């Protein structure tokens, strides 16, 4: 495995902890800031909206060396997370989460292009999946660590940990990632030209709605497991490890299968599995072992579609590859924001914590339809 890809994965590890740990520690943050759990869910949305606002920055930085852009984005990540760890109230935390999200989509966009350029021939999807693997490792180890710190000490230590981890990311990107050939400058307008075709919109729409469906459920995973499935608070850390393991397996499997078959075909098949799993969670949420099994299936599917979507948008965003790759993360996190908000509606209405999964299932099904249309209409049989 190339050291350069590992360095890129260090970055997605930090971003992954910053993004996903909030779902696991939501009750602790809510209690400390004296807000309700649905209101604390807005902190998830704030991060996602930061991603959406930050990705277009790449159009202004398009002439800079790709390695320099990566280093600048990591610095912003450090500032946002340290600010979050020091936030005294809900409103400052909201701003801190927004800042933390700004570099997320842009980093994935640049790192995806760099990873594909560094990949061996025919291994582009696998290289991107290795870069994304940092985010899955974050869920396997980082999120459980953050959950434990929040339970034993303070949730603030988790975000401070991400800020300090940024120093390590900066060092290894500087040392291990070579200066790769930049992309042709197609001008400001040229960066957006790929959006005139239908394929990118199908990919982006499927990413937003498909992932939004999953995040309807995953945003409130902690209270679902404890209040409905009957797991103890002490077992949540282990359950988060299992969820992270599903993400690791799903991500690597999605990358390998995409190189063997096609990214669109793999993504569409996985999206249908996600739809069925969300329905299953709603109906069997009171059976703890089955809920845990479906949780792992959902988290595996969530990342099994990630590298196929990322590599597909690069192939169908000629002239605007950086923006296109970043837009996948915009769509992912916009779906995150929508999912967290919509998933909270049945809770505000007094329904049980299994209902967000039911709300998310139709969104996941629409994502499946869009990916199927993309696969059938636009994707060649073998890229």
Automatic annotation (TrEMBL):
Q: Which residues form the Major facilitator superfamily (MFS) profile domain?
A: 4-379
Tell me how this protein sits in the membrane.
Multi-pass membrane protein
Q: Which UniProt keywords apply?
A: Cell membrane, Membrane, Transmembrane, Transmembrane helix
Short name of one Pfam family for this protein? MFS_1
Q: Where do the TM regions start and end? A: 39-61, 68-88, 94-115, 127-147, 153-174, 201-221, 236-254, 266-283, 289-308, 320-343, 355-375
Q: Give the top-rank taxon of the lineage listed in the UniProt record for this protein.
A: Bacteria
User: Where this protein primarily resides, as one coarse class?
Assistant: membrane
Query: What InterPro entries is this protein classified in?
Result: MFS (IPR011701), MFS_dom (IPR020846), MFS_Efflux_Transporters (IPR050189), MFS_trans_sf (IPR036259)
| GO terms for cellular component | plasma membrane
Q: Where in the cell is it found?
A: Cell membrane
Q: Which Gene Ontology molecular function entries are recorded, alphabetically? A: transmembrane transporter activity
Query: What name does UniProt use for this protein?
Result: Major facilitator superfamily (MFS) profile domain-containing protein
Organism encoding this protein? Barnesiella intestinihominis YIT 11860
**Classification of source organism:** Bacteria, Pseudomonadati, Bacteroidota, Bacteroidia, Bacteroidales
């Amino acid at each position: 495995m190339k050291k350069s890809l590992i360095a890129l994965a260090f970055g997605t590890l930090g971003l992954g902890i910053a993004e996903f740990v909030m779902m696991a520690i939501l009750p602790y943050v809510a209690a400390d800031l004296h807000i309700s759990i649905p209101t604390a869910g807005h902190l998830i949305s704030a991060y996602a909206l930061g991603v959406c606002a930050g990705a277009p920055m790449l159009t202004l930085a398009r002439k800079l060396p790709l390695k320099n852009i990566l280093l600048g984005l990591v610095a912003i990540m450090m500032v946002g997370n340290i600010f979050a760890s020091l936030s005294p109230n809900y409103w400052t935390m909201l701003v801190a989460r927004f800042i933390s999200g700004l570099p997320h989509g842009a980093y994935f966009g640049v790192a995806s292009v760099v990873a594909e350029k560094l990949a061996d021939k025919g291994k582009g999807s696998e290289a991107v999946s290795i870069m994304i693997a940092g985010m899955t490792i974050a869920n396997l180890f980082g999120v459980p660590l953050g959950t434990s710190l929040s339970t034993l000490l303070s949730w603030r230590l988790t975000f401070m940990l991400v800020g300090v981890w940024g120093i390590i990311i900066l060092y290894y990107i500087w040392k291990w990632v070579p200066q790769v050939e930049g992309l042709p400058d197609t001008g400001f307008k040229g960066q957006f030209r790929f959006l005139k075709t239908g394929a990118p919109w199908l990919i982006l729409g499927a990413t937003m709605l498909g992932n939004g469906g999953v995040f309807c459920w995953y945003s409130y995973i902690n209270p679902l497991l404890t209040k409905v499935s009957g797991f103890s608070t002490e077992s949540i850390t282990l359950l988060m490890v299992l969820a992270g393991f599903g993400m690791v397996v799903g991500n690597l499997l999605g990358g390998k299968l995409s190189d063997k078959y096609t990214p669109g075909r793999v993504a569409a098949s996985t999206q249908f599995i996600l739809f069925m799993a969300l329905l299953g969670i709603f109906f069997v949420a009171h059976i703890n072992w089955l809920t845990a099994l479906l949780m792992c299936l959902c988290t595996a599917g969530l990342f099994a579609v990630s590298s196929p979507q990322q590599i597909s948008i690069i192939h169908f965003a000629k002239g605007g590859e950086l923006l296109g790759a970043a837009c996948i993360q915009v769509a992912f996190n916009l779906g995150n924001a929508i999912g967290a908000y919509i998933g909270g509606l049945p809770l505000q209405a007094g329904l049980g914590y299994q209902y967000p999964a039911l709300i998310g299932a139709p969104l996941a099904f629409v994502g499946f339809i869009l990916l199927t249309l993309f696969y059938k209409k636009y994707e060649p049989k073998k890229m």
